């Protein structure tokens, strides 16, 4: 994979100016259904969307998905990884993560990719512990992905300066970890959108049998070629005795009617969702 964009310090500063470092839920406050419609008045948005859909259509037509997800080479350096982590943190908000910080335990990051979400969780936990003077909790993050190069990225780039947080990353398919011993929590980011309904039902059933305390989900909420956006995630988990504690639908960058806010123009501004789900008590 060749990365065709390179962020500068000014690009980092432009994304930081969105305000989500100080307020991790800034995306919730920025969202409205009116803005959702008005984003199409933005000529950059329409152009980015058309190019994105065209590229996905072309890719889908030619791709062997299983082989691609397993074998595609996706090396990434720390500069690009840091930018993507900062960029994603606008729409990957710490919904329910205070529960993980307070209770600790084993966290499965299913489909962990390059480990950026695991790092966001580590950073959040360390900040939470410091703010609340917590020193008697331990967390172990176990990341799983079927792509070897992405696991190499996660292994090399994810870090923690606190021995109470352990992390390791392993190459395996999506279902193998679900047959292991239980986990307290799970992170599921960008996974549900690539599963058809039969796969999804089976996946959710297995996850619910695995997790004892809570599940964080970040996923697509808008139709793109090759994806399966789902507005009934809560209902599917309810069938497995889990309930949605909080759900937020958001845009993937701050609204602007004249131009895209991401200086790298990585994606069009599309609709995403975050959920925190727990077992019904």
Low-confidence stretches: none
Helix segment tally: 11
**Largest sheet, spatial ordering of strands:** 3-2-1-4-5-7-6
Estimated radius of gyration: 18 Å
CATH architecture, by name, is: 3-Layer(aba) Sandwich
**What number is the mean pLDDT?**
93
Tell me the span between the first and last alpha carbons: 46 Å
CATH superfamily: Vaccinia Virus protein VP39
Overall helicity: 25-40%
- Biggest sheet details: 7 strands, mixed
Return the CATH topology: Rossmann fold
Kindly give the count of domains.
1
Task: Report on this structure.
There is one protein chain. This protein is of the alpha/beta class. The chain has one domain (about 25-280): Rossmann fold (3-Layer(aba) Sandwich). The protein is about 40% helix and about 20% strand. It has a 7-stranded mixed β-sheet.
Present the secondary structure layout.
Elements: H1 9-16, H2 26-30, H3 33-38, H4 43-62, H5 65-71, H6 78-88, H7 97-103, E1 105-110, H8 116-132, E2 139-145, H9 148-157, E3 165-171, E4 183-189, H10 197-210, E5 211-220, H11 233-238, E6 242-251, E7 271-279
Parallel strand pairs: 1-2, 1-4, 2-3, 4-5
Antiparallel strand pairs: 5-7, 6-7
């Amino acid at each position: 994979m060749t990365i065709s964009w390179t962020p500068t310090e000014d690009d980092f500063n432009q994304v930081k100016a969105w305000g989500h470092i100080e307020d991790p839920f800034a995306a919730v406050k920025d969202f409205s259904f009116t803005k959702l419609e008005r984003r199409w008045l933005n000529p950059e948005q329409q152009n980015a969307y058309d190019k994105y859909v065209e590229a996905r259509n072309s890719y889908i037509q030619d791709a062997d998905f299983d082989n691609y997800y397993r074998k595609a080479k996706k090396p990434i350096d720390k500069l690009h990884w840091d930018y993507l982590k900062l960029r994603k943190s606008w729409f990957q908000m710490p919904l329910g993560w205070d529960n993980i910080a307070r209770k600790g335990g084993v966290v499965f990051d299913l489909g962990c990719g390059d480990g950026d979400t695991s790092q966001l969780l580590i950073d959040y936990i360390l900040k939470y512990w410091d703010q609340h003077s917590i020193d008697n909790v331990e967390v172990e993050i176990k990341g799983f992905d079927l792509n070897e190069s992405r696991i190499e990225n996660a292994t090399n780039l994810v870090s923690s300066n606190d021995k109470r947080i352990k992390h390791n990353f392993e190459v395996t398919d999506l279902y193998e970890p679900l047959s292991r011993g239980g986990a307290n929590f799970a992170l599921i980011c960008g996974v549900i959108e690539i599963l058809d309904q039969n796969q999804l039902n089976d996946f959710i059933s297995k996850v619910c049998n695995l997790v004892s305390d809570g599940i964080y989900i970040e996923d697509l909420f808008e139709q793109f070629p090759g994806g399966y956006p789902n507005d009934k995630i809560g209902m599917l988990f309810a069938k497995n005795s889990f309930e949605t504690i909080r759900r937020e639908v958001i845009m993937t960058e701050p609204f602007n009617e004249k131009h895209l806010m991401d200086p790298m123009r990585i994606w069009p501004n599309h609709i995403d969702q975050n959920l925190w789900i727990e077992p019904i008590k």
